[in-house]
Amino acid sequence: MHIHAYEKLWLAAAIALILLLIGSVTYGAVGPGVAMVTDSENQIDAGGLDEDERFSEPRVEQVGENHYEAYVVAYQFAFDPSPIVVPEDSRVTLYVTSRDVVHGFEVVGTNANTMVVPGEVAQISFEVDEPGEYGVVCNEYCGAAHHTMEGKLHVVSQSEFENRGEDA
Amino acid sequence: MSRTETTQAPVDEAIDDEEFDPVGTLALIAVYFAILVLAWVYIYYIEFLGRDLVVVG
Amino acid sequence: MSEALRAEQTFADKFPNEAKVVRAAFLGSFFALFLGAVFGIIQTLHRTGIFRGFIASTDYYTVLTAHGVFMVLSFTIFFLVGLFTWAVTRSLDRPLVNIKITWTWYGLMAAGMTMAGFSILAGFTNAIPVSADVLYTFYAPLQAHPLYYAGLTVFVVGTWLAGADWFRTYLAWKRDNRGERIPLQTFMVLTTMIMWYIATSAIAASILLFLLPWSLGLIPSVNPTLTRTLFWFFGHPVVYFWLMPAYLLWYTVLPSIAGGRLFSDPLARVVFVLFVLLSTPVGIHHQYLDPGIAEGFKFISMTNTMFLLLPSLLTAFTVVASVEYGARRRGGTGLFGWLRALPWRDPAFTGMMLAGLMFAAGGFSGMVNAGMNINYMIHNTLWVPGHFHLTVGTAVGLTFMAATYWLWPQITNKPIYSLQIGLFQVVLWFIGMALMSNAMHAQGMLGVPRRTAEPEYSGFDYPTAFGGFEELNLQIAIGGTLLFLSTVLFLGNIVLTMGNPKVSGIAESIRPALSGPTDAPQVLDNLRVWVSIALVLVVLAYALPLAAIISDGGLLGPGVGTYPVWLDGTVHALAETATTAGWMLVDSLTVLGAHVADTLSGVAP
Fold it and tell me: Which of A55, C52, C90, C471 has the CB geometry, 3.0–4.6 Å to A49, for a possible disulfide?
């Protein structure tokens, strides 16, 4: 089959481009260590979250010297807890599930983003640095009031984090 | 209209056809390739990896 | 009849029965485009906050479901079946085997789309206890009325029968033409349909085994991850079901309009074979952020997807080379100067060229979507609609409109009412889409979510990196308005064309390729080989993920409830009071339109 020399050149360039893309993604996974949302958590009964040790009381908990876990429930039409409060300069692991339909959990303007599927627990971990406030939106259509579904993520100073229970 | 002209124009001799080198295409597609590579490098390494809250676990 | 006289005959002259089918299919397509455009302008003004008086925000999702289904299922696929009927008949130079079967599949498609469309539109009023506010992706546990799922099924079965019709016609031709290469257009139709059969098997399974029985109350629940995965098994190849007709036009019609010839028939075949192989084992790239699927499967999907870029990149070269050939024959010179020698006053030409140009940009945003980890940045943001309005919206939609200016006279013997308006219309589309899509991509980079009636939130402000949120909203609204105007001009032009008298002497022909089918290796025409490989690849990509999903969560889901959105009467009641009058008008137009479509499709030879 006759392929013109220029088209052969383009074919080689196209394959090089494809390898650049695959290589970049692989670098992202290996270098900075970007990890995809995966099926690491067990299934859960979406109708029985009240009996679940983590999700019956959505909260933030310290689990290591600088490691905090947040158990987040998404439902029509809010996130619990909101705001999710974590201290600066720490590693945060979110466990997010849904009581009802499929939702999204997106920390606006950042790379923290996951689908939230009833019956599944989505787990994502990231580092937080300086204090600040982030908005959280549900970015998957979940019903008639989907556009009102939002939350907050607050990164606060260490002292503010330790004193946070006192205002409740 | 110009359209009827194109379909009634005589078909070229075979010799011309086989010697056709699409240099213009090569030039255009080289420009496109360059744009793609630069845009990708920017959006992946600078935009994406430069953002807050990169998921690492 | 002498050769010279035959060359003067249009498609409508040679194949009047098939021409009727093509016309009916195009009219169904354009009716869907009309409805989709009306919903589109409502959406664009509502979402951007420019005007929220047409509908309540809770009804936005009914509008969005209608816009999605009418545009990407009805407009595109009705056009495809018309185009493919023309292409098969023309390239095999013989009528379809049984025109009654043809009208049957057309009727099934029309019936199915009417059922689905009715179930969606009924969601605007509480007087009818039917709705389908589940969007074009209908993710469980959100549930639609059974009529929605049943309608989509009937529609797809219609397309299956259409494929069988074309395959039968091809087989009849093959018996009479032993040893000949499959004509290129028919080859493209057959390979596209093979891909479609594989793709729709999963969505048919999802609907028939799970979603439809569940909506009828026959099973208590479904597994959301399983039904999502089956949807996206279909949801990626469907974009190639939209694209491949556009490619057929770019490869086999555009070169002749440009005054040139297709640069390489064999490479066109290779591209379509690559789509058969690679379109299906990639659906998981729509689920990169799903918690129920392992990262390893996502990585495999990513590499398959990146290789799926290859047929499109090859198409760019071959199509541009074919057009350049035409430019040089017309006297064009220079490295870039040859572009000036092309027939830019021809709306069919300019429309397809602009569509291709826009596709080049859409390809880039698609690479970002496909890049697994970079998907975190833009998943479910407005970047995604920005991307697909470039691809299905323009590469496909604009190509279909542009091609109509060339093809409609061939199937009706009527010249287009105004080619100048046609030219203005295609350029207007390009400008409107450039504005709207660019702003959508930028808002996506700010984190603005898609699929939402009101993207402003009380608790935070968006970052202002790529132009402010408000300025970008204005840009989206302006772009969307230009697109709506462009659509009205297109539809008006066709309606006025229908009132034109028939003429003779407007037949167009297609020039043979520079490198013809005999230059292509025989194996390319061996469809059985490609089907087998495609099935193997699909099994490799999906067997393990599906097995894992089913063993983890069960066939019917891990303790998940049912959310029949159509029972949410309270919210609807509040919204309905404000908008009843407007929607009664839409309902009447819908009924009228259905009558028109039925009447046209009922015209038998």
Answer: A55
Per the structure block, which two tokens stand in for C588? Answer: 């009447």
- Judge whether C301 and C236 are in contact, CB under 8 Å: no
| Chains with 3 or more CB pairs under 8 A to chain C | A, B
Q: Are C575 and C523 in a shared domain?
A: no
Confidence of residue B5 (pLDDT cuts 50, 70, 90): very low
> Is C572 among the catalytic positions?
no
Tokens of A132: 């600040």
- C76 with C403: CB under 8 angstroms? no
For residue A33, what is the DSSP state? -
Whether residue C464 sits in one domain with residue C578:
no
C387 is catalytic: yes
Is the CB of C57 less than 8 angstroms away from the CB of A38?
no
Same domain? For A20 and A56 the reply is no
Name which of C588, C448, C422 is nearest C48 in CA terms.
C448
Phi-psi region for residue A105, left (φ > 0), alpha (ψ -120 to 50) or beta?
beta
pLDDT mean by block of 10 residues, chain C; 605 residues: 63 97 98 98 97 96 98 98 98 96 98 98 94 96 97 98 97 96 97 97 96 94 95 97 98 96 94 96 96 95 96 96 95 95 97 97 96 96 98 98 98 97 98 98 96 95 85 97 98 97 92 90 93 93 91 80 47 43 55 68 51
**Distance between CA A32 and CA C374 in Å, rounded?**
12
- Residue C420: count other Cβ atoms within 10 Å of its Cβ: 12
> What one-character-per-residue DSSP string does C241-262 give?
HHHHHHHHHHHHTHHHHTT---
Determine the Cα–Cα distance for residues A70 and A125; give it in Å rounded to an integer: 10
Q: Are residues C446 and C579 in the same domain?
A: no
Find chain A residues with C-beta within 8 A of B44's C-beta: 24, 28
Active site residue C451: yes
Domain that holds residue C440: 2-564
Residue C555, judged by CB atoms within 10 A of its CB (0-12, 13-18, 19+), counts as middle
> Would an 8 Å CB–CB cutoff place A104 in contact with chain C?
yes
Minimum distance, in Å, between the CA of residue C309 and any CA atom of chain A: 8
